[in-house]
Amino acid sequence: MAKTIPIRTANAPSQAFEYFSTKKDELVGWARKFSLFPYPFVTACCAMEFMAVSSTPYDTDRFGAALPRFSPRQSDLLMVVGTLTHKQAPILLKVYEQMCEPKWVMAFGACATSGGFYQNYAAVAGIDKIIPVDIYVPGCPPRPETVIDAIMKLQDRIAHSHHPIINKNF
Amino acid sequence: MDMRLPNPVQPAFEPAESDDAVIVNIGPSHPATHGTIQVIAALEGEKVRKVDVHCGYLHRGFEKECEDHTWTNLIPYVDRLNYCSGLINNFAYCEAVEKLMGIEITPRCHYLRTLLSEYSRIADHMTCVAASLMELGAMTAFLYLVMIRDYIYEHLADLTGARVTYTYGRIGGLARDLPEGWLKRLDEILEQYEDFIGRIHGLMDRNRIFIDRTRNIGMISAADAINWGFTGPILRSTGAAIDLRKDTPYLAYAELDFEVPVGINGDNYDRYYVRMREMDESVYMIRQLVDMLPAGPINVDDRRCVLPEKRLVYSEIESLINHFKLIIEGPQVPAGEVYAAHEAPNGELGFYLVSTGGGIPYKVHVRSPSFVHMGGVKRMLEGYQLADIIPTFGSVNMIGGECDR
Amino acid sequence: MTSRLDNVQQQLGLQVGGASRSHGSLVLELARADLLPVVQRLKTEFAFDLLLDVTAVDWPLKTPRFEVVYHLYSTQHRDRVRIKTAVELADPAVESLVSLYGSAHFMERECHDMYGIVFRGNPDLRPILLYEGFVGHPLRKDYGKHDEQPLVPYRI
Questions:
Q1: Are C146 and A124 inside 8 Å of each other by CB?
Q2: pTM given for the model
């Protein structure tokens, strides 16, 4: 039985509304991507590269992503830097739950991405087993340029995503 | 979302009965704890009455992993112990295995390992001082030190291929020899180092705020420090001149001219200054070593542990078999046990290896200075104020990878 | 240095089960009951003031199964001693050294965590590297390397 799929759904919003909604998304996306407040959830060796990428000569301040906010209530980018162990997992989940929308998660380093080469009883095989991840940064530890590339890709994603600010339609 | 998350630790003290005492939880995700440490403090006003330190949030199962890998394959795991000074972990471990196998490294390797150990020591002390100064608010000092540390990282990346975790030591030698122009760049970096360190001294040494926050804070006496297992700069800041490089010299330290800086009170200021002076002594040692570095092979000519040259592996069957056995089965280390210790930037880093013959270790245990220091740090925290926890912790230089292994 | 260690070995003589040398340090094998008195003598008479390390080795095919290993260092005389005590699986208990060295607190906690060795006299044997709710002692040879015990349920 062929089912007809209409080109526009029955309760579609007007075209003018959609135009303004897209423009609003572009504006809010631009504002959000250039004012990322990272929460550096630092655990292990990747912290060295995090410190390097936050200071001169690889500066994340150029991207608006330099000022860390050590309170989950005030930050929007959760950077999990380093290995996550089972003992630390409840703390990561608590911090993630305390952050408000919109929030993004960066898995910084091989250990956060997949457990790295610690495949044993103590380490969690990747933080995406616990929380959803937006961008994975490979490397052990990743070079600062890789991190900056990741921030730029995340900014592209933020710029092109839907940002509902009043209700789920607008 | 209502989630009852399990508490991974059991605190040592119950909530206080008097309403003056407050229990505060610091960490394990905290900007100023340098990693994953949880400090549960019972406060009376601003004063810390009791402290319960919880580590283990970065326990990655290093010892269990090592029982599954060959002696050479576990060198990357060893790197990630004290990740601020990765080369020293490499060399301490390789020396322990070489002792078990009865191998003498070549003279060039001997001096080069010493030079790189001191270079790593500079990077580690720089990270410690930078982070602890940043927590006190001295952001400029942090940026200066991290800039020089970045030059060191790039320079070591030219040599080893990686910036932070090098995996450069091998049993019987090193992975590769120095590239062209490496020593010249070393000179340039050391000159820039001196310029920047001069600025840090100018900013911090007589800075009233810094002195007020660190003098007479976190004090410990020499006898107490030894009883609680402190080694390294913390012990030296109490006045005891105990340094493995002078007491039981290993590598090329017996031939070098250097002094061991020692503090007066054992407080935070002394620890900062001991680290600054140790960096200067390391630079002096590196300059001597550059002149002493002999020519010659990097790896000892021993088929039991050193991989043969690639062109021989591709042309001769014996080298091919040798290469194959070394990679797949690992270097065959005779049965026995050894404890070898180096003077790491944090203190005495020791490897206790147990072998039952074969290419895979039976037990690899790390005597990590940071872990033992965490046992004793409460002596430096109790009795002081809440805000003093931060500079004291910064001066102890707890490295999570080493503490929890 | 070597003659001092010989001297130490001789003077401890009858209390020690076996003695040998290992790459420059003296190795003493003691019975469980002799541990605390011998270490006390080493600290007070022979100036071994720094307790460096407490660990254990698991030999599942031997009885007694565990070997608790201590490393001591003398800052004054710059030499090292390694002490080994054997304990069995049925009663893996040793006297604690907390009365002599403050550093023993954390190190014994870790050894208990990893191997299950009970240190009688240590006031606090809570898990230190592992977490509350972890069952088993991972460094024992019969604990599987991949046996994870997650605290937070996985989402995927």
A1: no
A2: 0.93
